[in-house]
Design goal:
Elements (H helix, E strand, L loop, with lengths): L1 H31 L16 H40 L6 H19 L5 H9 L4 H19 L1 H10 L3 H27 L4 H25 L3 H8 L2 H19 L4 H19 L1 H15 L16 H12 L1 H28 L6 H22 L2 H16 L8 H36 L6 H29 L11 H18 L6 H29 L5
Helix pairs in contact: 1-2, 1-5, 2-3, 3-7, 3-8, 5-7, 5-11, 6-7, 7-10, 12-16, 13-17, 14-17, 15-18, 15-19, 16-18, 17-18, 17-20, 18-20
Length: 542
């Protein structure tokens, strides 16, 4: 009895820990949102205990309700599968049989053979100095018992539908308990073996094929009804009722829990580090900057006449100029190969359409051009590189944060980015011009002027946008994390806008003017905002 109380106490402490962590994270997140953050000061992280306990209590109650909902999913899926099979097959199968085969026999094996600790569990074990062996040993059993409780509503519904609630409860719950303990014991031993991953995958594959293959064979031979009659009776219920005792004994008296716990703890940490959200954010938002290689050049001495931030910006771009040019060459080369193929194909297989029709086709291609230039843009690469290799260190110095230095630095970086993006746009435009000449000039001068205007406007937009958002929000912290949720939203929305442009199938002169007009208006307004706001917002975050 004392052991069971210890199980419940340990689980309750862990749930309180998760709820408290959630509340602290919620307050921290709300505090980072503009306007809202003023009403959620950071002092709430270590004060307002009553409010935090209330929110944590609500979180705990919701977690129980969610657990019941999650455990109802297998029964809902079993209902759908059974209905589908009964529609196409002469033999009728019950929802219980589908659940028993797929989610009790098969899924229980998969779930128990590959257990893992999540990040919060590792933090709980470490922070509260909980015994790894005891935690893993107890929570494995407790999680199985909790699953049995949470599946009670679904099992009762099946029992009511089968007109024998007690029989369905006994067979359903205790077969689940037995199968869980069987595979938990198997997993204990296999985790300490060599080549455990290959062995586990082989076992799961063989077991799954055997169970599903056997069920399919019975379905074809119309024997599933017999299987259901054999498996649903009081004798089988009694067998399941007592079958779990020996496996519980084997699980509790396993002699190498210390080695098992160390191995499981190590494997879980590896998985957490691999899937860590912060690491993914760092790679997504600063990965390009960390990969960019700076090279010292012979021209460094020629910059001695410059001072302050002008010197630093010029020196930075001169040192990763080689890397930028190499990537520009790859982009220009790729574009040229594709466009050369199109030009050669138009020569070998002449296009027999009018100039007006050709212009309509190319107008419809402008939305796709928006997405292509977004992908080829150097804007995000430049922003990540200048923060990782310059701003993350220099923003700590007052002279670097002066209004004039910030505005001058912005324009210098913008023109450098525009230089690279402009070459990409110019390359595409030149190849369109070559295509026009080779095909006897089906495109009129009006269209070529509009296309040049669009390419110029998009080059300005993609060179300006990333820098504008960077200077206004400055979302990166000194340890290369991204904590500003607004930046992530803006970044996602801009990508969505570029991707949405691919879905536009019909465009024309008006669309081209709208895109160009929007880009230039955004640029002009942004310049005004930068000069007024950036000196106040461009700061190093901790």
């Amino acid at each position: 009895m004392s052991e069971f109380k210890e199980l419940l106490y340990l689980d309750w402490r862990f749930r309180q820990f998760k709820a408290s962590t959630f509340v602290n994270g919620l307050f921290y997140f709300l505090g980072r949102i503009p306007l809202v953050g003023k009403h959620v000061p950071t002092t709430m992280l270590y004060r307002e205990y009553g409010l935090k306990k209330g929110v944590a209590g609500i979180k705990l109650a919701l977690s129980f309700l969610i657990s019941f909902a999650i455990q109802s999913i297998p029964f809902a899926l079993s209902f759908v599968i059974a209905k589908g099979v009964n529609t196409v097959s002469d033999e009728k199968i019950s929802v219980f049989l589908v659940w028993f085969v797929l989610f009790n026999l098969v899924w229980t094996c998969i779930a128990k053979i590959f257990p893992s600790l999540n990040k919060q569990e590792i933090q709980f074990i470490t922070n509260f100095r909980v015994s790894k062996e005891q935690y893993i040993k107890r929570t494995t059993i407790l999680s199985t018992l909790k699953d049995m409780v949470f599946m009670l509503p679904g099992m009762i519904v099946l029992g009511v539908n089968g007109e024998n609630v007690i029989l369905y409860l006994l067979i359903g719950l205790f077969s689940f308990l037995s199968m869980s303990l069987i595979w938990s014991v198997v997993e204990l031993h296999m985790t300490l073996m060599k080549n455990r991953l290959a062995l586990k995958l082989t076992l799961i594959s063989a077991w799954t094929l055997m169970i599903i293959g056997g069920a399919f064979w019975l379905l074809i031979n119309q024997e599933l009804a017999v299987m259901e009659q054999v498996s649903l009776n009081w004798m089988i219920a009694f067998i399941w009722l007592v079958a779990w005792f020996p496996f519980l004994y084997l699980y509790v008296h396993f002699k190498h829990y210390d080695q098992y716990a160390q191995q499981m703890f190590k494997s879980s940490e590896v998985m957490i580090n691999y899937s860590n959200t912060e690491n993914k954010d760092k790679q997504q938002y600063l990965g390009e900057g960390q990969k960019m290689k700076l090279e010292k050049t012979a021209n460094d001495k020629s910059l001695d006449h410059l001072t302050g931030s002008n010197y630093l910006n010029t020196l930075l771009f001169s040192r990763f100029n080689t890397a930028l040019r190499k990537q520009l060459l790859y982009r220009v080369g790729g574009i040229s190969i594709v466009m050369l193929g199109i030009v050669v194909a138009s020569i070998l297989f002449p296009i027999g359409i009018s100039g007006e029709r050709m212009e309509t086709i190319l107008y419809n291609f402008i939305p796709a051009m928006f997405f292509i230039l977004y992908l080829l843009s150097f804007g995000k690469k430049v922003v990540q590189t200048i923060f990782v290799n310059c701003d993350s260190s220099m923003l700590a110095y007052p002279f670097y944060r002066e209004s004039g230095a910030i505005v001058r630095g912005f324009f210098y970086r913008f023109f450098k980015t525009f230089y690279y993006n402009g070459i990409i746009s110019a390359t595409i435009y030149v190849w369109v011009f070559v295509f026009n000449i080779v095909n006897h000039q089906p495109l009129g001068i009006d269209f070529l002027l509009i296309l040049a205007f669009v390419m110029l406007s998009l080059s300005i937009l993609f060179s300006f946008h990333e820098l504008f958002v960077y200077y206004i929000l400055q979302p990166f912290t000194s340890d290369f994390q991204v904590k500003n949720p607004v930046y992530k939203v803006v970044d996602g929305l801009f990508y969505f806008l570029a991707y949405f442009s691919l879905q536009i199938k019909t465009a024309g002169f008006i669309y081209a003017l709208l895109v160009s007009g929007f880009s230039l208006v955004y640029f002009v307004i942004g310049i005004i905002v930068i000069t007024k706001v950036a000196p106040k917002t461009f700061k190093l975050k901790n």
